[in-house]
Amino acid sequence: MTTNPTLLKPFNSQQISPRRIAFQFGSQIPRLWFRNSSIMTQLLNGTNLFLPAFEAYMVHTVQGQLRHLHDPALRSQVKGLIGQESNHSQAHEQYNDILRHQNYRFETYLAVVNWFFERLMPRLGLPLQLAAIAGFEHLTASLSEITLHHNTMAQAHPAMKALWEWHAAEELEHKNIAFDLFEAIDGSYWRRVLGGVLGIAIVVTFMTTGMLLLAAQDPGFFSFKTLSDLNKLLLTEYRLIPRTVRHIVPYFQPKFHPSQRDDRHYGEQIFPPSAIAHH
Ligand SMILES: [Fe+2]
Ligand SMILES: [Fe+2]
Questions:
Q1: Which pLDDT tens digit goes with each residue over 201-247?
Q2: SS3 letters for the chain?
Q3: Which of 99, 166, 180, 185 has the lowest tally of Cβ within 10 angstroms?
Q4: Ligand that comes closest to the CA of residue 173
Q5: How far, in Å, is the centroid of ligand 2 from the Cα of 262?
Q6: How far is ligand 2, taken at its centre, from the CA of residue 276, in Å?
Q7: pLDDT confidence of 8, banded at 50, 70, 90?
Q8: 173-204, pLDDT tens digit by residue?
Q9: d(CA 177, ligand 2 centre) in Å
């Protein structure tokens, strides 16, 4: 992927637009590209498995709402969201090909994921789907902030670091949009709460099952190291569970809006504002 920040548009949540990127995933990416740890690598790889179908689903659902939107500012932001998520979906699809080349097996799992997003989710009806998408996006933005704040990817392979940080920064950049869209189309507080619970449960379930599916294919899955790395990841070192819970609780307050949390500077670390000075 392009890592020259001057080629990337500066962070700007007022005007969402997709960035042109060129991924160069080669065979040089080791199987265990995060601290040589199976469980830590597979949390991200396992998340990657469902991202193409998940983000394509969001794009498709949100796109169907464009004709109901009359506010030009929101329309243009929603189009920006669609552009960014389409790029993410494609990039993570390429990444799944790397996992295939590394001989991981997950085609049946992907069939379930596709069925879930293409067949099951649409049965919820539009307002609840939009509420769930707002919930997905809140969890995604929370995980993105946690990742960038703690410089978590510093210990990852550089190609993977670049990919996940690009994705995280764009998630922070467009974090208001799905929420604003839900408010514009429906806006029921209780539906937002239900969608939030549902959205978060869905993402956590796919992240966890994907991680376990891949980690079980690595040697040494049934070992003390697996438990110890899991403990570091979730509770003691990266503290993913307490940190995520702290971000999620405010979502359920009636007056919550994603913009109340100013996390701009994390996004600006990845897409610096000074980059425009040359254009
Ligand atoms: Fe995304
Ligand atoms: Fe997103």
A1: 999 999 999 999 999 999 999 999 999 999 999 999 999 999 999 99
A2: CCCCHHHCCCCCCCCCCCCCCCCCCCCCCCCCCECCCHHHHHHHHHHHHHHHHHHHHHHHHHHCCHHHCCCHHHHHHHHHHHHHHHHHHHHHHHHHHHHHHCCCCCHHHHHHHHHHHHHHHHHHCHHHHHHHHHHHHHHHHHHHHHHHHCCHHHHECHHHHHHHHHHHHHHHHCCCHHHHHHHHHCCCHHHHHHHHHHHHHHHHHHHHHHHHHHHCCCCCCCCHHHHHHHHHHHHHCCCHHHHHHHHHHHHHCCCCCHHHCCCHHHHHHHCCHHHHHHC
A3: 185
A4: 2
A5: 17
A6: 24
A7: confident
A8: 999 999 999 999 999 999 999 999 999 999 99
A9: 9
* Per-residue pLDDT reduced to its tens digit, 132-174: 999 999 999 999 999 999 999 999 999 999 999 999 999 999 9
* Ligand 2 geometric centre to CA of 171 (Å): 5
From ligand 2's centre to the CA of 220, what distance in Å? Answer: 34
Answer with the residue of higher pLDDT: 83 or 274: 83
